[in-house]
Amino acid sequence: MALPNHAGNSGSRREFLRIGLAGLGSLSLPGLLQARTVSSAPRDERTAVIIVWLRGGCSHLDTYDPKPDAPSEFKGPFQTIGTKIPGVRFSELLPGQARISDKFALLRSMAHTGGGHPAGSLQLLTGDPDPQDKPGPIYPDVMSVANYLRAGQGGRLPNSIGVNAIHSYDGFIISGPAFLGNGYGAFSVVGDPNAPEFRVPNVGMSDAEGLRLKQRLGLHQSLDDVKRSLDRSGTMRSLDDFQKKAINLLTSPEAARAFDLSQEDPRIRDRYGRNSWGQQCLMARRLVEAGVDLVTTTFDGPLCGRVANWDDHAVNHHVFDALKFRAPVFDQAVTALIEDVYARGLDRRTLVIVTGEFGRTPRISYVASSGGGVASAAAGTVQPGRDHWPRANSMIWAGGGIQTGQVIGATDKRGEDVTDGLAGPAEFLATIYRHLGIDYQRVTIPDQLGRPVPIVASGARAIPQLARVS
Fold first, then answer.
1. For a disulfide at 193, which of 88, 214, 279, 446, Cβ 3.0-4.6 Å?
2. What is the pLDDT of residue 251?
3. Residue 452, beta-bridge partner list
4. Cβ atoms of residues 73 and 115 within 8 Å
5. Residue 229: other Cβ atoms inside 10 A
6. 208-214, long-range: CB within 8 Å, 24+ apart, which pairs?
């Protein structure tokens, strides 16, 4: 459920409540009880996932999978540096992550068939095998599935939250609950957490406001009792969880504290970086620490350069200037997040994943810029770029009790194709579900007609090297 992007005055609270309760009352939740009890572990022992999403797709050759011996038309201008993993080198753009590489596993062998941003995103996030772009998801994303399967569990915070959520690309919707219904979508936090005036509206009402809210709900609940007595499928009873979650979020001081970055030591905030990406990562850590199961955060906007994403075609950006521009902020935020997860003892239960929808073309292209700006030459100036490349992508996996300090898979000498350890979107999703304690091989979700739909493709298996070992 997305929050309005405006200040939390009494009018906006009333509007949020009106919209929220209307949505709750219109949910279609067939078969909720089929698989809702996924884990009976206490909240503080349950596993969690943070996904840092690089919207547009990051160049694997210029970050985690450099090819210094490739021809000049492939390798790019950056030097390589050593890491904590013997024999493994990163781009010089990532000194922080190279320094802590013993705290994560590097997967260099992700590939799929979604060559466009919508298709590539939907393949990774929903498991949709279609290589064609489409306006929105037809299968629920991993965030919504986790919400569905863990409905009714946990405390006062939603099970899935997006901090600058993964949502869209050029008008295409790239995530969402699809046939599960809007009530299972990730709770969305909008705005810049680094802004001095930032707050999450409508979270943490005063006691007086909360009392008035509960009094106003009396009639609504009485009507629900009547509906429930007529409901033989149990669907109305299942709405209780969502109503309670909405009310808890509105009235809970614990929820308000979880979103309040002023509670953090200023030195910690500095360590993440006083910018939107750094503070988004800090909020993600606070949320999993408070009991949220799955948090996503998107790295896009002005910190990316002129076109506000990682889509470094030459027409958009000078790819190497763009990477140099965003790398210090990216490296600092990711390094701080991973180190903080370990320092706070969250590493056994919290899995951190950093990825975009695909890699970039190994061969460098040269095209005229469509406009000048940050990391882009004046319009008409020919500059280097890298285009979409779903045949190879690198991602990092930290914490989660997995074996870290390892490299999984490999690409060829030019970074064009996977040569070892091939993994696809189904394996990506299965690995996340395994960490969350969800039996991805057996659990299904109901479609609009109540028919069982697997949550990963038949025969898919979680990546074995990313299983918990501690």
1. 279
2. 67
3. 446
4. no
5. 9
6. 209/10, 209/13, 209/251, 210/250, 210/251, 213/17, 213/247, 213/250, 213/251, 214/247, 214/251
Pairing of strands 294-299, 48-54: parallel
Check residue 46 and give its pLDDT.
84
Residue 286 lies in a domain: yes
CB-CB contact of 146 with 129 (8 Å): no
For 366-381, write each residue's pLDDT tens digit.
999 999 999 999 999 9
**CA 59-339-260 angle, 5° bins:** 100
pTM confidence score: 0.86
In this structure, the chain runs to a length of 470
In a domain, 375, yes or no: yes
Integer-rounded Cα Rg, in Å, for the chain is: 22
Q: How many CB atoms lie within 10 A of CB 431?
A: 28
Q: Is 266 exposed, middle or buried (0-12, 13-18, 19+ CB in 10 A)?
A: exposed
Non-local CB neighbours of 211 within 8 Å, separated by 6+ positions: none
Determine the residue type at 104. F
pLDDT band at 318 (very low <50, low <70, confident <90, very high): very high
Residue 82 — pLDDT band, cuts 50, 70, 90?
very high
Residue 91 within a domain: yes
| Selection from 158, 215, 210 nearest residue 24 by Cα | 158
Tokens encoding 297:
């955060």
Residue matched to tokens 């990316």: 304
Distance CA 373, CA 249 (A): 41
The strand pair at 365-368 and 80-82 is best described as unpaired
Handedness of CA 242, 247, 250, 255 (dihedral sign): negative
Copy the structure tokens of residue 421. 């350890």
Domain around 424: 31-204+252-466
User: 286 with 265: CB under 8 angstroms?
Assistant: no
Q: Which two tokens stand for residue 148?
A: 């569905």
d(CA 414, CA 412): 5
CB 276 within 8 A of CB 194: yes
Q: Are 352 and 338 in contact (CB under 8 A)?
A: yes
Residue 6: inside a domain:
no
Question: How many folded domains does the chain comprise?
Answer: 1
